Amino acid sequence: MFNKVVLVGNLTRDIELRYIQSGTAVGSTGMAVNRKFNVNGERRDETCFIDITFFGRQAEVANQYLNKGSKVLIEGRLKFDTWQDQNGQNRSKHSVVVENMEMLGGQQNQGGFIKDGNEPNYANNGYSTNMYNQNREYNQNSGGFNREFNQNNNYSQNRSYNQKQMDSEPYQEKVPEIDIDADIKYDNKPTKSNFDSGTENEEIPF
């Protein structure tokens, strides 16, 4: 089974660093991720909060360079945690175990994708580069008709993408900053969402 999560957002609290009996460092914090969507022609913002955990040398690096409000890209796996609260009630939540991370923004940006203590350039491993190479190889092995079709198709996609970028630029300038202090503690009673009441309208992704 494939379990991979990639998130870009801001930390909602400082790293809580500790060491387990084996001597391995464990760093815990929360992350806020913003999403923009369209409901019946109205543009809205939604913020998702999720706990993340670093291990080993990566936890120590995160504790040294990251703090509340830091912007970071993480890649990891989704984990389901269960426990009992002080009242004996069974509780659960999803969290992310960080496998790789890249510090973003300001002087914190070291330009590296940190994995197991190494810092290779994440840009060299980008999905866009791999996709470009695959398409180039495919086009070279195809006949003239396929090449012409791909060129026309790419032109249409690029034109659509550029128009989409132009339409979204004015809105991007007015996007509010994420309120990282709105992080909800998991031991609080969850509030009822719009989905529970069945009033949520159909969402149209950008």
TrEMBL record:
GO cellular component terms, A-Z: nucleoid
A Pfam family matched in the record: SSB
Domain of life: Bacteria
Keywords: DNA-binding
Any one Gene Ontology BP term: DNA replication
Region spans: Disordered: 141-206
Ranges of compositional bias, category Basic and acidic residues: 171-190
UniProt biased composition (Low complexity): 145-162
Coiled coil: none
GO molecular-function terms, A-Z: single-stranded DNA binding
PANTHER family in UniProt: SINGLE-STRANDED DNA-BINDING PROTEIN
Subunit structure: Homotetramer.
Protein name: Single-stranded DNA-binding protein
UniProt organism field: Campylobacter porcelli
